[in-house]
Design a protein that fits this description.
The protein is mainly beta and about 625 residues long. It has 6 helices and 29 strands.
Amino acid sequence: MGILSLKKSFLQLTLRLGLAITVHLSFLLFTSTSFALTISKFDSVQLFWNPDTLSRSDTNLFNRGGNEVLKSNNAIVNNLLDLIYCEEEDTRQKEIYAEQAKAYQKFSRYAGRIIADIQIVRLKPFGEYINDTTLKPENSLQKFGNSLHSLTLRRSVENNLLFSEGQELDPVDLVETEQLLRNLLYIEDVGINIEPLQDTNYVKATVVTKDKWTLNMGVRIESSAKGRITLSERNFAGIGIGATGRVYYDEEQKEKWGYMGELNIPNIAGTFITSDLWFREGVGYKSYCVDVKRDFYASKTKYALGGTYVKSQEPYKIFPVDSIVSIDYSLMSFWVGRSFRVGKPVIIASPYIFTLALKYRQVDFYKSLPTSMNLNPYFHSNYQVLLAAGFSNQNFAQDNFIYSFGATEDIPVGFIVQLIGGVEDSEYQRRLVAGGEISAAEITPAGYLFIAARTGGYMAEGPRAEQGMINFKSTFISNKFTLGKYFGRQHVGVSFTRGFSRFEGEREYLALNKDNGITGLRSNSLVGQTRLIVNFETTLFSPHLYYGFRPSCFAFCDLGMVGGSNEVIFGNSLFSGFGLGFKVKNESLIFPSFIFRLGYYPNVPQNADVAYWIITSQDRKKFEQFRMKEPALLPFE
């Protein structure tokens, strides 16, 4: 990349940053009168346009009054909003009702033909459509927004292709290429079209990608004395590199100011090796992390590997007593895996694969909670050597409006059988490690069904079992149904976890709370070693788009029980929450979906924190995969 190209990319990024700041500050200025606050021990007051990408939990927001977030009394602000939240044409509507069968079937007729030519068509975020590349933005503000966007480079797309000119067309390669490209944070959707060349055994492949707007800014205010500002770019200069910067302020800390930086470099030089560099200092933190990995990204992948190094001083929140202590530790791990195809190849299905993987992991704690042989094992310094073997098969079906708001979703179907064994040597004892998993998913006549059984634990001298657990999990997602002009799905999730021979201390209990069970309910008394969770959600999507946003409404019911390891789970009290909610998402933006929900909780434990209404943001959920990953025991959480 030349100097002029870098200067142009820097200028574009500066203009985009100025635009993003203007829009966000305009929202604060012109919609502040419609804010509603909620304050409780469970949900602190927060103002946040974009969620913390490193956080595992959702982030609460001020109430912006539903659709009022898209409007302003100021004409200039409305013009800026039209740039990002533009009305889409009927072309996009054609995609909504397209039921898609297993993805391989659309390429099966061309299997075995020679790929003579590969064309790459890259579309910008606004006013361009993947199913009709002849349409161009008509709105001048759309054109202005696209001019500020750094279009993904052709090389970045080519690096993710699993096929090349001159080779025979394999439908599996094409489907998995689509899936790889859709998994990129800066790509909204992908389509591969095959055109046979007349009177020959050759075909032309056209890969069409549509970018997302990838510049992101967030402000979070938890109180008058605590908050943070986040800025991220997920596709710098169109080369796929992601960068995030964050500034923290907390008057209660000795170091009132802190900062964080992250650099993500995916698929380095087409090797599918991804590196992630991360650091954070101030406000109680002094942490550094380097992570390099190459997963089993496709059926043809033979080798996978990874390495991680972490050195961190950080605050640790103790649950359920709600106190914070400082810990200091280092972690080092590396692993390598090799896969082998099993059986004869099939034209329209991925192969069966047998995989072996070996991992070494070492963690040393220099400062932590008090420990003994049976107390706080999470903070025991130790090393592990793990060997994993698995047999799996993964195909894909394609549909939409499952977790997305219109973008194509790749649905893994197949199975995996996996066994893990090894040894752990800690500062207190040496013991064997064992675990396993059997899981499968399929598209049934009624919809998507996933079922999994997992177990893990340790065998100490004696012999005696320690820190064991079993988990059964199932997810069902119905086919689309219609209700007038609206269409929707029913989601059902069931999870049962039981621990046995657990120790005392941190990470040795199961909690029934907003992250694991009942959204909006939190109590320090809802802990145990056996837990049953059942979640129901019915979602209806609107057939209309408003400034690029699609709204949906949903009804939910969460049920949960928690008890001891030797108790029959149904002998414990049933806790529940149910209610209604509203979601909205623009698939052309990297921003998450925004959610407003009202809940009712008929059985609330004493001293519980309850959020009867929540405004939050949520990244798209992901499907379970059936490829071997880095060997690790299932966490007890």
